[in-house]
Amino acid sequence: MNERRSPMAMARARHALLQAGLDSTVPLEAASSVTNEVWLTPTHVVRVNRRPNQRLRREAILGPSLPAEIGYPMVVAYGGRMGADYLVLKRIPGKPLAQWWPTMTVAQRQSAISQLAAKMKRLHRTPGPADLPVIDAPQMLRGETLSPVMSLLVALDQARSLAHVDSGLIDDVERMVYELTPAIEPFDSDFLVHGDLTFENILWDGETITAILDFEWARTSPADVDLDVFLRMCCLPQLHVGDDLVDRTRPEDYADIPWWLRDEYPELFDVPRQFDRLRLYAIAYDIRDLTMFPPPAPAHKLNEHHSLNRLRRAVVGNSHLDRLDTGAGVV
Fold it and tell me: What's the number of domains the chain is made of?
């Protein structure tokens, strides 16, 4: 049984509704999600985070400060404990864009990306709240430290000591980090990025993007940081949808998205040394993934998409970004 749809998961959702002062006996529908337990009632959404980081607390703080154009739903309640904190939101019309995408026409897809670009532009002009707690973001790069890669270098040392990790590979990655760091300096911004922008976090009603959701990784950062996860999704979309959508999600349906976004939001791509910046973002993401989920076996015995193999491809110039970097490429 899928843990996120188990009786215990449903009980956690009902407890959250009860604590929010809502009817806890209403029918619950399990929603597709890559990271959280998500349940729908006719009028509300309940999200439960089972990891001990209280990411949803940040979102409860951030949500009310987001501009109306983003469509973020009203926060009804936040609470819970470490390892089971919850967020209850008003339900917005629409379903995740990932569910619609396989059957949409080309014209509908282009319209969705045009609307998304407009919302991204608005978000990237939104100052971050002064009281927003710092988070260990998927890309371990920080603007407030002496060097933006300090946390990444610490993680590289940690990765070097892991079983089944070739220290020579980590040496190669570390050299790349030192070579690429000047491309992102200075790494500071007063404006928000989403931090985890995929079609699972965008609501579509058949004609309109009604909301961008799931801002738990949002923080102030250079705008092109949002390209990291987004371009991963475009290249390997089956890794960025819920289990029930994997069989319907085809890479060829996502192939044109980066170019459509570039046409609609050219300034997001018009950054000096952008390919180098994106390579560093991707390395930082993969090293964090590697240290959080150490490999249980040598690289050749792991799934091709394991972070250890993603890092190997980055070193030899065969990453998802390299495949996008064509003569008239996005990056």
Answer: 2
- Residue 49: helix, strand or coil by DSSP? strand
Helix (H, G, I), strand (E, B) or coil at 63: helix
Q: What is the CA radius of gyration of the chain?
A: 20
Give the pLDDT confidence score for residue 26 in this predicted structure.
97
Average pLDDT over residues 250-273: 96
Q: What residues make up the domain containing 248?
A: 95-139+185-324
pLDDT at residue number 4: 61
Task: Look at strands 95-96 and 29-30 and give their pairing.
Answer: unpaired
| Nearest by Cα to 59 from 124, 120, 129, 119 | 129
Say which residues have a Cβ less than 8 Å from residue 212's Cβ, sequence separation at least 6: 70, 71, 72, 116, 119, 123, 194, 197, 201, 202, 203
* DSSP code for 75: E
Question: What would the two tokens of residue 250 be?
Answer: 């085809």
DSSP count for the chain of H helices, then E strands: 12, 10
Q: Would 253 be classed as within a structural domain?
A: yes
Average pLDDT on 139-158 reads: 92
3-class secondary-structure state, position 46? strand
My answer on whether 195 and 305 are in the same domain is yes
Q: Looking at the structure, tell me whether residues 124 and 67 fall in a common domain.
A: no
Give the global pTM: 0.91
Together in a domain, 118 and 250: yes
**CA gap 191, 50 in Å, rounded:** 28
* pLDDT value of position 159: 97
Strand duo 37-40 + 219-220: pairing: unpaired
Show the tokens assigned to 138.
């998927």
10 Å CB burial of residue 217 (0-12, 13-18, 19+) is buried
